[in-house]
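A note from the maintainers: we've had questions about how concatenated examples are separated. There is no special marker in the raw files; a new sequence line simply starts the next protein. For clarity in this README we add a label.
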Amino acid sequence: GRLLMTPDEYCQDKAAKSGSSFYYSFLFLPPDRRRAITALYAFCREVDDVVDECSDAGLARTKLVWWRQEISGAFDGSASHPVTRALEPVVARFNLPLKHFLDVIDGMEMDLQYNRYPDFPTLQTYCFRVAGVVGLMAAEIFGYRNPDTLRYAENLGTAFQLTNIIRDVGEDARRNRVYLPLDELARFGITAADLVQLRETAKFRALMEFQIERARDYYRRAFASLPVEDRKAQRTGLIMAAIYQATLDEIHADGCRIL
């Protein structure tokens, strides 16, 4: 048999190995759209892994510089990595702007700059780059007729990211990362140290209920923007939204015991 995987097989493998529920929602798509979203997902995983796996921030930055050149290569035919080679036909066929990919890399780079977020506007920028922009690209791949669908997609991406942040509060704190805005922690009488020391108090629960309510608000905003005529095309995102909202509801029902 062949020893080398094709670029598409590499992306498929990367997505499947992540064990993410995203991957299962892709199986409902027609083949060309499935290949496209799988390549986009694999790209996001690759740049995310750079930040997660490099203990040396300098090395991680160097690798992200390489990924910036590499993703530009998907637009001029000079890409060498299997993921960016798989993206070459995708960016042309689905009209994905280079700027969106660079935004994603900028978002990953924020993880090297910050392990604390001072306020929600800063966190919102992070969510836009690592998830809102990905939502916008996914909407292009799934297809839409009404431009309001883009507003839905961006809000849904942010809602997903806020849900991840809520779910991973304990895990992130153990890695000395706090994504919840520091000014909001202060307002609820919580310090970053409380999170790092995994203190689940009534104050902590109040803080988390506030965070859950805001995430739910982003889901509401997203669904309110989705035009009826694009619901069917966007159903992959809606499947994901159902899974993610169930996670949020479970955390809430369990009294926010997530540390």
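[label: protein 2]
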Amino acid sequence: MVVDLQTSIGISGIKPDWNRIGVVVPPFSIEADPRFMYLSTETRRALSKVSYMVEAAQGASVVVGEVGTGKTTLASWFHSRYQRRPDFIPARVDEPPKRSGLLLLRRIAAEFGLRTRRATEHQMNELRTFLTEQAKDGILPLLIIDEAHELEEEQFLALRSLLNYRDPKGGKAYQLILLGRPELDINLREVPDFNDRVATRSSLDPLTPDDTKSLIEYRLIAAGRDSKLQPLFTDDAMMPIWQETRGYPRSICLLCLHLTLELLSTDNFQIDGPFVETFLADHSGYRQAE
């Protein structure tokens, strides 16, 4: 029996009644929220390697992965982590400007709260002065660039020029994390002067079926669900979810979001294998706007 839609998802604003499945916030938002970042084996490895290189002031780190493997969430995690550290000042560029090295430098300056200049030389001097001042205060600037596969040669060379700059003690004046699709590695080979300055490379791949199950369970707990409750997703639901999403975290979250919304429109309290298969058969276009 299907319950009244207003009862299940709430009359005010037509909001889902997440309390009905034991959570206090939506567990499967596809927004990049570091609170919900599931640490798969590869994610842990990337976090460990990049964090070490950043804190050891080794220069540039690169993380590559296909669309939906969690790069933006990882970028948010790094920014959130180092924002809480008094010895770091992080800035994040989510979508670098096209083509121009000057435009990239201006964007970096703006993210660090600096004045933007009209000439490359003046903007570079503004950034170098900033780096020198931070070094004197014992603070290490960290620049995080997402979608870095969109960077072009002139922009890599601008970043290299900053990496060449040393603080008064002789160390690297700032740290850099680049995250992008696999073509980022290809693009870097075309700029050997910058490529040689990359201290570490990491790759994010789709999740295994076991990790898919762990991601779902982790997100539910992070959203407030009591782990002592019976599983919201049964074991036999995991394989059709993994097969549909191919293990891509963003796709897993999107499908599970639709599955939980579908659950809230019924009088069911669990999502099992038949529930998933029926949903996929009836809503094959759930990714598209209706």
